[in-house]
Design goal:
- It is built from six helices and no strands.
- The protein is mostly helical.
- Helix 4 runs antiparallel to helix 5 and helix 5 packs antiparallel against helix 6.
- It starts with 14 loop residues before the first helix and ends with a helix.
Amino acid sequence: MRLIKWGVPPSPSSDFWRSHLRYTLPLLVWLGIMFFMSGGAGSADNTNPVVNSLLRKFFPWLANQLTPEMVDRVDFNIRKTAHVTEYAILATLLFRAFTRGRSTFRNGDVLWPLILGIAWAAGDEYHQSFIPSRWAAAADVFFDTTGVILGLMLCLWRWLWKSQSSNNKPS
């Protein structure tokens, strides 16, 4: 990578911009989706009817036996699983943005995605406290943090697997 002079932006065709788009754009798109779902679109008022209709469509024999409380419990479990999954994806994208395809490992490659993922989770709950159909819950930050940790563990496992397989290649 060539050095960038102070005050002189890199040319539009440079590797800098391609790398920036490749590693940062997916992260920014994902953050936008998360912010959108953090509003009214992701509220239980909107997801519960969807879960109910999916149960009736794909499991009609089961849906007829479920009480409204049971449907609420299924919806709750799906929502908490979604929390863990969305934050695992966030952690993966953060890790990817910090490493930018490097083969070397730095502690910050895990530390910064962990800090930023937890900060986004706390900010997300704070944002939800202003949405009439949502409420902030510390338990959700716990589920989100669990997702961040699982996502980073997956990234580390993949990085270790790749580095070991590249070390075992015959020269």
